[in-house]
């Protein structure tokens, strides 16, 4: 069973390519993108890690920390980084967890609780479910989770779009419509009564139906 949106992200201690961390302490007051990989030296993941390294300045601008994970050891991650730089033009510039005891994968329900044994003997197919993205807020709550198959690379531009929405809607009592992008109109949240909305948006709103109240994106 997957962790539900709104659940507290499990805390853990782990070895990473940038040293040992305690996850909640490492998050601090930031937003976090935690993303997992079934195996080092796999083709789709290689492209993803390189792409994310190039996009890191965009995540930095949004105050989002990046944390990767694989059940392979940290020493193997470091060797993989050379291949990623050579083939993708950028090496990982964020920490990667070496989850060789499967502790984090189990905590986040990516592997069964019964999983055991030597991680080095497992294939990518054995770890196929360790291919999930979690967006975690400063309150340590899970805001989004997405699981991808091994054959489909992740769309990090979409994850940036989602983060823009999550951060906007956490600050203002609005929701974002389908395919919304930064700067476009938003919808007044259903939890806001019309009387409250008149105070918040004295200029009024567009309302093609009584339950759809459209306003410009709050500044």
Task: Outline the fold blueprint.
Layout: E1 13-16, E2 19-22, H1 23-27, E3 31-37, H2 43-61, E4 64-70, H3 74-88, E5 96-98, H4 103-107, E6 132-136, E7 142-147, H5 156-171, E8 174-175, E9 186-188, H6 194-200, E10 206-209, E11 212-215
Parallel strand pairs: 3-4, 4-5
Antiparallel strand pairs: 1-2, 3-6, 6-7, 8-9, 9-11, 10-11
Walkthrough of the structure:
The longest helix has 19 residues. The chain is an alpha+beta fold and 219 residues long. 29% of the residues are buried. It contains 6 helices and 11 strands. The radius of gyration is 20 Å and the shape is elongated.
Summarize the structure.
The protein has 219 residues and is of the alpha+beta class. Helices cover 31% and strands 22% of the residues.
Pairing-aware structural class of the strands and helices?
alpha+beta
Shape: elongated
For the largest beta sheet, what order do the strands appear in spatially?
Answer: 5-4-3-6-7
Count of individual helical segments = 6
Radius of gyration, rounded?
Answer: 20 Å
Mean of all residue-level pLDDT scores: 96
> What is the N-to-C order of secondary-structure elements (H for helix, E for strand)?
EEHEHEHEHEEHEEHEE
Q: Which percent band covers the strand fraction?
A: 15-25%
Gap between N and C termini: 38 Å
Q: In this structure, how is the largest beta sheet organized? A: 5 strands, mixed
List how many beta strands DSSP finds: 11
Low-confidence stretches: none
Quaternary organisation of the protein chains: single chain
Helix content: 25-40%
